[in-house]
Amino acid sequence: MEKVKKFFAGVKKEMSRVRWPQKKEMIKYSVAVLVCIIVFAIFFVASDFIIAGARTFAEGLK
Q1: How far is the CA of 44 from the CAs of 1, 22, 29, 48, in angstroms?
Q2: How far apart are CA 18 and CA 37, in angstroms?
Q3: CA atoms of 34 and 26, how far apart (whole Å)
Q4: Secondary structure of the chain in the HEC alphabet?
Q5: Which of 16, 14, 32 is CA-nearest to residue 24?
Q6: 21 CB contacts (<8 Å, ≥6 apart)?
């Protein structure tokens, strides 16, 4: 039981050292993540269409 108390005391001490982001920073980080997700989604959708088109074209040549 003493180990558990010591563990949670250590967790509490470490959590007090954490620098939590302000609301403005959190919004900025969230927007950056959403933009990255949208960019990657567009990239993968475009790649999928290009590969599917190339495959369809190649099958048409047979």
Answers
A1: 51, 33, 23, 6
A2: 27
A3: 12
A4: CHHHHHHHHHHHHHHHHCCCCCHHHHHHHHHHHHHHHHHHHHHHHHHHHHHHHHHHHHHHCC
A5: 32
A6: 29
What token pair was written down for 33? Answer: 């993540």
Question: Would you say how long the chain is, in residues?
Answer: 62
Residue 21 in contact with residue 29, Cβ under 8 Å? yes
Rg (CA), the chain: 25
Write the pLDDT tens digit of every residue in 7-50.
Answer: 999 999 999 999 999 999 999 999 999 999 999 999 999 999 99
